[in-house]
Amino acid sequence: MDVRVSGVRKEFDRFPALHDVSLDISSGELIALLGPSGSGKTTLLRLIAGLETPTEGKVFFGDEDASLKSVQERNVGFVFQHYALFRHMTVIDNVGFGLKVRPSASRPSNEEIRRRSSELLDFVQLGGLEKRYPAQLSGGQRQRVALARAMAIEPRVLLLDEPFGALDAKVRKELRRWLREIHDKTMHTTVFVTHDQDEALELADRVVVMSQGKIEQIGTPDQVYDTPNSPFVYGFIGESSSLSVRIDDGEVWLADRALGLKSDAPDGDAALYFRPHDVELVDGCGGCIAGTVIASRRVGATRRVELEIGGAAERVEIEIPADHPAREKSRIAFRPKHWRVFPKV
Amino acid sequence: MTLGFTLAYLTLIVLIPLAGLVWRSASLGWGGMWHVATDARTLNALKISFGTSLVAALINVVFGVIVAWVLVRYRFPGRRIIDAIVDLPFALPTAVAGIALTALYSKNGWIGRWLDPLGIKVAFTPIGITIALIFIGLPFVVRTVQPVMEEIRKEVEEAAATLGATRFQTISRVLLPGLTPAILTGFALAFARAVGEYGSVIFIAGNLPYISEIAPLLIVIRLEEFDYTGATAIAAIMLLISFTMLFVINLIQAWSRRRYGYAT
């Protein structure tokens, strides 16, 4: 089922949570809504589900205007961060709930409901735990039950709100891979919310980066990582360093030195962004960035050094080989291999 | 150490007086006990006491749950005041409540005067007793159910809605079953309190033997007749019935707790 969000704005008590957000999701896609807290990602997910109504704008499922429908009618599978299981029901009753509350005309028989529920439990690898109560399961198991329960109603779209947020790191990684497998088998159109960039990049077909109620960038994991289109995305996804520079006639200047980098950004003050690991060290300096090492620490296979650059004493981080002889107070010169310049606002 | 302290305290405050009661009434012998228990006036008093208490506790369950729900889920001006008012029956001397209710519901009272032409008599009938018992029992239900309700996450309701459950199905299949143990506790407390209530009832009851005479009052009457054994016998019977009912309710709770795994 294609899902289209068109020009949606949402205010809570006059406080805007989303400004004019539009998003096209094609059938069978696995989409991540990624952003810091307060970026509006959960609000957007809840708007698609119908748990919130937009102040303005529409949500389409296929060609149908879903904004006119109630949550109950939208037929979405929603998975909550804290599972939201019905604790007085057994696991199998939880999974079958969505079928049991259907009006009698479309309700399968009791045996059929039981059969389908236990099939789903096998599918999420919880066969044999039918008779347990949610309180008797681990966090990871509960979230699997929640997913089975959401899938039982044959939803048109699966929506997951920080599905792994309440789990510990190890279970999280397992479930991440497992969710990808489930998605590849069922091909449900799936949208999940996360504030964890690794999760988004590893799991999603496309990542929607959000900040302050707006979509900053939509793209494949490679696109948002390799070609961030705003300082925010640069800073939020992966690590980044930035320097204040000046653009003059298409040339990037650091204080009074040209760096030998060309930019089509407009003339004036700007910021140069690059990845700490994506630099080459150079000897001597004609058109490079040079700084004094003020701190250095070993990170895995490489060494991370903090440099103080130029008279303004701006600090940037770069990665150098672990066996590099640089130590505190020594000078290092480098040139970013990939970089972008954003005009100063 | 703490177990010893708890047991010693319980023995001193609860068990010794109760044992004294049983010992005293035992002097009647089985025959005498049977005689007191099957006395028409005693039977009627017990029937009225337990009957009105049961009805009052049931009504309190329904409205207490609604009051708790409103206090937990809705934000409105004056909510904190209403929340405080719920506790009033705890704090108010019960005799004051009894006199106020009698004044309201008697033939010339603010409410009674409208009911009287309809042929509904409240004061000096079991209806009046029930109203007094509803009054003193309400906070027990509200205060036991409220904290459990506060723990119900809004998400659980939202989950039910996304699965297609109507509002009614969400309440009847998701919310209420989850609250059952708390509601049962509230019911048990309100009921137990109502059975033992004296102060607020005797004013509005009118205390007509066989019609609106409650068991606690009959005990007082026996005491005033210096029939101490008769009084303790009625008390022992009440004790037995109350204990049995509380025990059964506790069993139901233990069962539901085991079943729903609320222990964690």
TrEMBL record, chain A:
InterPro entries from the UniProt entry: AAA+_ATPase (IPR003593), ABC_SmlMolc_Importer (IPR050093), ABC_transporter-like_ATP-bd (IPR003439), ABC_transporter-like_CS (IPR017871), Mo/tungstate-bd_C_term_dom (IPR008995), P-loop_NTPase (IPR027417), Sulph_transpt1 (IPR005666), TOBE-like (IPR024765)
Gene Ontology cellular component list: ATP-binding cassette (ABC) transporter complex
Alphabetically ordered keywords of this record: ATP-binding, Cell membrane, Membrane, Nucleotide-binding, Sulfate transport, Translocase, Transport
One of the GO biological process terms: quaternary ammonium group transport
GO molecular function annotation: ABC-type sulfate transporter activity; ATP binding; ATP hydrolysis activity
Superkingdom of origin organism: Bacteria
Signal peptide positions (record): none
Domain spans labelled ABC transporter: 3-237
Keyword flag Cell membrane: yes
A Pfam family reported for this protein in Swiss-Prot or TrEMBL: ABC_tran
Keyword Endoplasmic reticulum: no
Gene3D superfamilies, per the entry: P-loop containing nucleotide triphosphate hydrolases
Similarity comment: family membership: Belongs to the ABC transporter superfamily.
Name of the protein: Sulfate ABC transporter ATP-binding protein
The organism of origin for this protein: Phyllobacterium myrsinacearum
Lineage, highest ranks first: Bacteria, Pseudomonadati, Pseudomonadota, Alphaproteobacteria, Hyphomicrobiales
